[in-house]
């Protein structure tokens, strides 16, 4: 008689453990935006409402936490593009909704962290980057096919503009400048509408152009 091989159950993280991890990432994102990537991990733990050991159990070092935050922001921004494409019938309105959502995710404050010491080619980071770039391209292409978005701009142009316009000027606090960001993004969106009212110098900027810069 053949004995059946017992099936080993794969343990899944408990719900409270997942919630703690999400709280840590959320707190880190907020504090990185406010104080930069060198904020003490103890302070992140305090804002997240967890112990220091919980932070280190989830993220063995600062690079792991920074990478998780950057991936989380890119994933959330890509999701905003997906939702805008699915729920918004007007192509340019979908683009506008996405641009404002990307600014709310503070992608401008987190972009410099990609230039830090951690592995920029980490599989998780590359996957999040590809998803974001793909969704951004899709939402721009839809608006261009509809004749609503000028055809001399590309993904890199949009990312640079959103990053620059949602980044506070030197000497001003990030939180205090929030009330101006969406006003200036709307000025950008008006300038992106087709037909174009002026000729842009140079050529459209791709993400590959930005990586080589």
From TrEMBL:
Keywords: DNA-binding, Transcription, Transcription regulation. SUPFAM superfamilies: Homeodomain-like, Tetracyclin repressor-like, C-terminal domain. Residues 40-59 bind DNA. Residues 18-77 form the HTH tetR-type domain. It comes from the Bacteria. PANTHER family: HTH-TYPE TRANSCRIPTIONAL REGULATOR BETI, HTH-TYPE TRANSCRIPTIONAL REGULATOR RUTR. This is Helix-turn-helix domain-containing protein. It comes from Streptomyces neyagawaensis.
């Amino acid at each position: 008689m053949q004995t059946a091989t017992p099936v080993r159950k794969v343990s899944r993280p408990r719900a409270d453990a997942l919630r703690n991890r999400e709280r840590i990432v959320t707190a880190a994102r907020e504090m990185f935006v406010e104080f930069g990537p060198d904020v003490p991990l103890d302070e992140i733990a305090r804002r997240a409402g967890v112990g220091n050991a919980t932070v280190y159990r989830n993220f063995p070092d600062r690079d792991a936490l920074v990478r998780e935050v950057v991936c989380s922001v890119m994933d959330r921004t890509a999701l905003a593009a997906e939702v805008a494409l699915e729920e918004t019938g007007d192509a340019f309105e979908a683009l506008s909704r996405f641009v404002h959502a990307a600014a709310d995710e503070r992608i401008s404050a987190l972009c410099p962290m990609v230039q830090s010491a951690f592995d920029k080619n980490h599989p998780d980071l590359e996957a999040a980057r590809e998803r974001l770039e793909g969704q951004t391209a899709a939402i721009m292409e839809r608006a261009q096919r509809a004749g609503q978005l000028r055809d001399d701009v590309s993904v890199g142009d949009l990312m640079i503009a959103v990053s620059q316009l949602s980044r506070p000027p030197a000497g001003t606090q990030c939180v205090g400048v929030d009330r101006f960001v969406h006003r200036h993004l709307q000025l950008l969106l008006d300038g992106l509408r087709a037909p174009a009212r002026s000729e842009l110098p140079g050529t459209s900027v791709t993400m590959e152009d930005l990586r080589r810069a």
